[in-house]
Amino acid sequence: LGEALEEAVEGVGGLLEKQIEKKLEAYESEKQSAAVYRNLLENLAVSLTNPIVVFVDELDRCRPDFAVKTIERIKHFFEVPGVVFVLLVNRPQLCASIRGAYGADLDADAYLRKFLLFSLHLPKLSANSYDDFNIVYCKAILSAYGISNSKAGTNFAEQFGAVSSALGLEFRDLERGVALYALAGPINNSSPLVAWVIALKMWKPDIYARLAKGEARAHA
Question: Would the pTM of this model clear 0.85, i.e. be above it?
């Protein structure tokens, strides 16, 4: 029994040793492959007149583990001269994803700074701006629906875009709001009022629902 036990232990040890060797070989191969890949990418970037710029949008909306792995892999595989990554994210939300992946006690902002050369906050144009992006975008969406040439549609786009800027609504909210306006059918003189109601539905759906039920004090 003792001899059989020794043989079993030796067999397990030998198997474990082989598995470790395979892991080490795979790691070394992966490391060499990554180096070759970065070298090829760097040569490509050097051969081009302009740098390679990659935009990654809405990373903060991905699963926390996927968002974090993506940032880490960008740093690991693409950190070469001539290649630039631009991440368009909601920073607080991305920090929440990092804490979700590594624990609530982690300083997510400090961890994120390891991967970012610098960060910029892009403010929205105010409703008082002549070229309010939200108004321009609303008109573009109305054009896609084929109702941009009407006076009512123009009034709605200008009013809804301005209100959206004041409330800080996102482009997705504008898309949904214009879709609701298009589904409502022909609307003439009441377009400005409809614009405010739709904006309220996008901004505070709970208040909108209470007003729709006839609660006069829902807005208080």
Answer: no
